[in-house]
Amino acid sequence: MIIFFLFSKTYANIYGDLKSELSQLNYSNILSFIKKITLSFELENSFVSSCRSEIKIFKEWGNECKKLLKRIEGIEYLNGIVTDDKFKLFLNDVAIRLDNNESIGIDKIKFSSELKRTTKEMEKMSEYMSEINFLKNKL
């Protein structure tokens, strides 16, 4: 019975740890936080991409898409983190300080690079989810 509970994990709050970290953001941990966000989007994009491929190749809503559906609440939770007002304000503050060449202990190039990587993953997810919605309606 315990094994069943270990494998019947809900994905609704899979990113709750990131939400907790969000409340403790500071200059020393912002870069590692953004890296975790990026990795989270990369992970979720693997599920999105598998579903997209399944629809395009097999012309059906199969197991890969069912796996994605189980993760939708987690994806929404993740999106909620990156659209959080506190997060956006803090990113803006960091960007302004880096643009003004203030010494805040953050490498400007690494920060910019990681933000671009995150943005790319978010855009990929948005594009693929739109394609999935379009294709699903055509099945």
Features:
elongated, mainly alpha, 78% helix, 139 residues, 6 helices
Description:
The chain is mainly alpha-helical and 139 residues long. It has one domain. Helices cover 78% and strands 0% of the residues. It is built from 6 helices and no strands. Helix 3 runs antiparallel to helix 4 and helix 3 packs parallel to helix 6. The radius of gyration is 18 Å and the shape is elongated.
Q: What gross morphology would you assign?
A: elongated
Domain unit count: 1
Helix content: over 70%
Distance between the ends: 38 Å
Radius of gyration: 18 Å
Please report the number of helical segments. Answer: 6
* Contiguous uncertain segments of 5+ residues: 1-8
| Relative strand content | under 5%
Query: Mean pLDDT, rounded to whole units?
Result: 90
Summarize the structure.
With 139 residues, this protein is an all-alpha fold. The protein has helices at residues 2-7, 16-22, 30-58, 63-82, 85-99, 108-138.
